[in-house]
Amino acid sequence: MQWDVNTKGQTVSLDPSDLLAQLLGKVTSLTSKPDHESLVLATVQKLQSSEVLSSMNPEQLAAISFSLGYFYRIFLTNNEVETVYDRTPEGINPSFSDEPRSQDESS
What we know:
Number of helices: 4
Order of helices and strands: EEHHHH
Strand order of the largest sheet: 1-2
Number of strands: 2
Mean pLDDT: 79
Strand content: 5-15%
Distance between the termini: 44 Å
Structural class: mainly alpha
Low-confidence stretches: 93-97, 103-107
C-alpha cells in the first residue's frame, strides 16, 4: 500500500513504514495530554477487566489503539467538547484545545 500526499504543490509517496515513521515522530514529539493519559488508563482497565488484554496479540493491540485514536479525533471534531479536569495539572490550561476555533465559535 502507498499514500500519495499532495502538499504545497508537490506529491510525496509514502509506504507504510514511511508513514509510520512520520506518525511516530509526531507522537513522540508531543508532550502527554491529560485526556490521552486518562483514556489510555481507562482502555487498559477495560481490557484487563474483561480479560481481553491477555489474549490480544501485538497486531490486535496496535489496531485497537489506532482505531481508538481515530474515533477519539472524530468525537472531538464533530462535537463541542469541554475537557473538565479534576485538578489542573501544572502547566496545563484547562481550556487548551489543539484545534483552533474561529472567531464566531469562540464567542
